[in-house]
Design brief:
Zinc Finger, Delta Prime, domain 3; Rossmann fold; 5-stranded parallel sheet; alpha/beta; 12 helices
């Protein structure tokens, strides 16, 4: 199942994505949440998410954050479009500009498509004051968190975590990104080549380097903690954001 949100007003579109994801997670509190960007988008991962199952129910919620911005990722997604659209898992797509041919292909397969455009003549407040259009505000790249985690740079990870929260990135999305990095490092540890691992070659190489920062059984335990924090938070056993911060500070 695909929900596509796109358009030039990326700030409004991203806010709507967060609203949609939060609503979906309330309906499916045990569904696992993942985020994918163009950097980590390939056919094998898309097919894995399309056919994957969560721990307690057969649902994933996958946020595809502007995955069509590179030619390689766009080709991989369109090749898997039928599989993704027919999956029982939910794929929420955020894109800026889309060419007509690509948009038409996705519209035919998507459950819902919503475009976000700037209202004509609207005055929108930006950091520099009022204007006809909002200034381009750099969007938070959530994958700086995964890189900091991979490097085991606790200070940077904590700083980026605070910035993510200030950017209204929900804890579920942050947790999913960190879990994906831990999983990638575990897979890279057990694999000799990218082909064997099923990971994107670039992701495999980084994960292969990063996993050396977590000797012994640290990675498996970290994976277990992330899963435990996620489910405890959704069972009302603690504050999600606080629990994640404690985990980060324990690295």
């Amino acid at each position: 199942m695909i929900y596509l949100l796109y358009g030039e007003d990326t700030l409004s579109a991203r806010a709507k994505v967060h609203e949609l994801v939060n609503a979906l997670q309330k309906k499916k509190p045990n569904a696992a949440f993942f985020t994918m960007t163009a950097e980590g988008c390939d056919a094998s991962r898309l097919e894995e998410f399309a056919g994957g199952q969560g721990l307690f129910e057969q649902k994933y919620i996958v946020f595809l954050d502007r995955v069509l911005e590179t030619a390689e990722a766009k080709e991989a997604f369109l090749d898997c479009l039928k599989t993704v659209s027919e999956s029982d898992n939910i794929f929420v797509m955020l894109e800026a500009k889309l060419d007509k041919a690509t948009l038409t292909k996705i519209e035919k397969k998507a459950e819902k498509v919503q475009e976000f455009v700037f209202s004509a003549g609207a005055k929108v407040m930006s950091k520099s004051g009022a204007g006809d259009r909002p200034e381009a505000i750099p969007e938070f790249n959530i994958f700086v968190l995964s890189d900091a985690l991979g490097k085991r740079d606790k200070k940077s990870l904590w700083v980026w975590y605070q910035k993510a929260l200030l950017s209204d990135i929900p804890p579920e999305e942050i947790s999913g990104t960190l879990f994906w990095q831990v999983k990638s490092m575990l897979v890279a540890r057990e694999s000799k080549t990218a082909l064997e691992s099923g990971l994107n070659p670039f992701v495999f190489q980084k994960s292969k380097t990063y996993e050396k920062n977590y000797p012994g059984d640290i990675l498996p335990k970290l994976s277990e903690k992330l899963v435990s924090i996620y489910h405890d938070a959704h069972r009302g056993k603690g504050d999600f954001a606080v629990a994640l911060e404690r985990l980060i500070l324990s690295l």
